[in-house]
Design brief:
10 helices, alpha+beta, 307 residues, single chain, four-stranded antiparallel β-sheet
Amino acid sequence: MATTVTPEMAAAVKGRGYLRNVGTDCFSARVITVNGRVTTEQVRGLVEAADRYGEGMVTLTSRLTFEIPGIHYDNIEPFEKALAEAGLAVGGTGPRVRPVVSCKGTICHFGNIDTFELSERIHREFYEGYRPYKVPKKFKIGVGGCPNNCIKPTINDIGIVGANKPVYDTRLCRGCAKCKIMEACPIDCCEIIAGKLMVKKECLWCGRCIGKCPFGVVPEAENGMKVFVGGRWGKKTREGTQVNHFFTSQDEVCDFIENTILYYIENGEPGERLETTLDRLGFEDAVKRILSGEFKQRKEQILATAQ
């Protein structure tokens, strides 16, 4: 006889990544990907598990994960075993660091950073590494390769955007009537004033102007990342605030992410998203403390409160 699922049983498996299908004792299993990438072998294993234990359907989420509906409570354990054989796992729910989302900046001609490499590191260090620890609500991270913002990184708790910050030498500008820099700029943030190129503060550091001037006005760029903090999407929406610091390495970004998570664990109220914590305690002071690295110095002490 099939198990009758109580609300307590449903709540317990929800924390593992199973969302109850309305009016049934079946669940949708949230299957994790690493930045939306899976191998063909993993896809075959996923399809076989969905056919055998679900209702033969695979759906997609906005966080680049799969959901398999129609899995009866009694089939959860064998379903997980079949997934494990394919190198896949269920998760991504509850008050935890959530799976990272990433664009395809590694292979996109607009990409300024290796988004796959960075997001895979974030997945290992913070989705997997922090899985045993609770955060006040949930914590989402997005990695975008350029200011096109295809995966909307700035509406995550932390959003990372690849950037090529132009290095200008306007002394070389000849005030051309047909400026190659102005032609290359997708947001019209450049203009010729008094015979010289002027760049407005609205420059997004997309890098499309690099090397376009035949006289070497923009010969190179400083490669790195912009980081946005406190974004969210849902019933309450907010774009993250850009941190006034240009990040030039993965190590620097990951240190910032870890210190932010630890800050959130230590200062967030239960059920409170990061943006609310920052509003309550002050964005400027919080970012200053996060950049100082003070929370990582007390990592073990902070995590002891989050188990």
